[in-house]
Design goal:
Largest sheet: 9 strands, antiparallel
Strand order of the largest sheet: 3-4-5-6-9-8-7-10-11
Number of domains: 2
Radius of gyration: 20 Å
Strand content: 35-45%
Shape: globular
Distance between the termini: 43 Å
Helix content: 10-25%
Amino acid sequence: MKNCINLLGMLLLASFFYSCSGTSGKQNTIEKDSIEVKEKNNWAYSEDVDEMTDKKMYFANCTSTNEVEFEFPYNGGSILELLVRNMNGKNEVVLHISKGIINMSVGSMGNIRMRFDDKEAVSYSYNSSDNGSLEYAFLDHSKEIINKLKQSKTVKIEVPVFNDNRTVFNFDVSGLNWEHK
């Protein structure tokens, strides 16, 4: 009991000094063991269980750092979400636009371009959702993309959006922790 009170006191004291240090606006966490301050990751992680197979599904989600204004009927600002998921033992990379339609080419395939850090832009093909939803793009070459995301700090993704030609969304992708195969 005495150890718990001492630990709680140390954490409160560390929190007090941290809050007084003038670093407001940053999301940080304090680890109990070392009182080490860490920046919050840009990726949100979650997992779920498929009720039909009892298999775990894993998700990592990163949101674009910029918001793009489209014309009617999608006005009001749109963001792009970059989702890495593992379902049924298979990794996939998916894009989701909050407002708008991702253009598809003939045969329900399209191309996006991704620029990792300051390297040259690379084109990747994508497919539409099985349910016909045009807010999603399922990228080919997921393994390659995930490896590049893990090694990069930033990525720019150029997406063909309905009524707006090609639009660039920026991401801070540093710190992706993805070990699912």
